Amino acid sequence: MLLVTSCSHPKEPVLVKFTGDTQGTYYAITCYADDSLNLHSSVDSLLHRFDSTASIYKTNSIISRFNANDTSARADEMFSAIFNKAIEVSENSNGAFDITVGPLVNAWGFGLSNRMKMDQHTVGSLLPLVGYHKVKLENGKFIKTDPRIQIDYNALAQGYAVDVVAAFFDSKGIQSYLIDIGGEILARRTKPGGEKWNVANEMPTKTADDERTIQAVVSLQDMAISTSGSYRKFYEENGKRYSHTIDPATGYPVKHSTLSVSMIAKDCMTADAYATAFMVMGVEKGKEFIKNHPGLDVYFIYNTPDGSMKTYYTKGFEKLL
User: Fold this and answer.
1) Which of 78, 112, 291, 298 has its CA 20 to 30 A from that of 216?
2) CA separation for the pair 40, 71 (Å, rounded)
3) pLDDT attached to residue 207
4) Does the residue 299 lie in any domain?
5) How far apart are CA 252 and CA 269, in angstroms?
6) Is residue 1 part of a domain?
7) Where residue 208 sits, what CATH number does that domain have?
8) Residues contacting 266, CB < 8 A, separation 6+
9) What is the pLDDT of residue 1?
10) Percent of all residues in the chain with a pLDDT value above 90, rounded to a whole number
11) Number of structural domains, the chain?
């Protein structure tokens, strides 16, 4: 008897790039993988499923059903992961980050509804609906102290969507990739030649339509970066600018001089949440917070009283520039 065996060798990974639309923005993937894998359609399907959990723009998503007080809705693994991270960052940041700020975001015109006439009375009437300690998950059921409370995952959902795609790539044995969803970015390992992934950090602009320029370049390996800013999403009324970043403590858009915050972390959801928290704090409170929380690496861009633009960044961030 003659036994003949054949050995099949795995294909060498090749450069694969593709883009798409998700969550009202873009996604862009660069990876080194077996080009026979149907990655594009798989990522589209994965992000569509993600929206069915965490998008407030989908009326039948889990988060929308919870906001509508649908008692039959139950949290899935994705919803629970985002909720638990939100509560963790809220507690660590003394409430600077808060997913219950949704009613105020809507009232100021940055959410699902049209902008209300905002004054001290309106803000005061909505503030009792804000407070991360007023919501919890128990056995997959969402519980809130007031049925009018609305939660909004926009400040960390995109970051988690990046992590979800990364976990999918890891499960497929893809070892080198860069995932970008609306500017929330995660880099795994290095390129095949050992080069790290270079990511541009944008310089804040005076108007939302100004040409984009590079402030700095960050080299990443097994890290995520998220940037939150006040210079792209805002409106002006009677000569006054209103930022989309709402301070949960006051109920008003932040008024400090911070223009943008970039945060580095091992996972993108953590980076996304803390970038928002630091944007609420501003550079001065942010510096004090960092002193008491070593290990958080951040890059601030802010205006000075004389109108010039300055930066502040941690030593850990500096090593990546």
Assistant:
1) 291
2) 36
3) 61
4) yes
5) 25
6) no
7) 3.10.520.10
8) 222, 223, 224
9) 33
10) 76
11) 1
pLDDT digits (tens, 9 = 90+) for 34-90: 887 899 999 999 999 999 999 999 999 999 999 999 999 999 999 999 999 999 999
Q: How far is CA 215 from CA 24, 55, 299, 304, 310, in A?
A: 25, 31, 11, 17, 11
> Read out DSSP for 269-301?
HHHHHHHHHHHHHHHHHHHHHHHHSTT-EEEEE
Hey, CA dihedral for 176, 297, 243, 97, is it positive or negative? positive
State the CB neighbour count (10 A cutoff) for residue 40.
14
Chain segment 228-249, per-residue pLDDT in tens: 986 555 545 655 655 778 999 9
Residue with tokens 């270079």: 198
Identity at 174, one-letter amino acid code: I
Query: What is residue 242's predicted lDDT score, i.e. its pLDDT?
Result: 59
Q: Is 19 part of a structural domain of the chain?
A: yes
Note whether 268 and 227 are within 8 A (CB): no
Instruction: Look at residue 174 and tell me whether its pLDDT is greater than 90.
Output: yes
Residue entry with tokens 């960044």: 313
Question: Is 115 within the bounds of a domain?
Answer: no
HSE-up of 235 (CA within 13 Å, CB side)? 7
> Quick check: 5 pLDDT over 60?
no
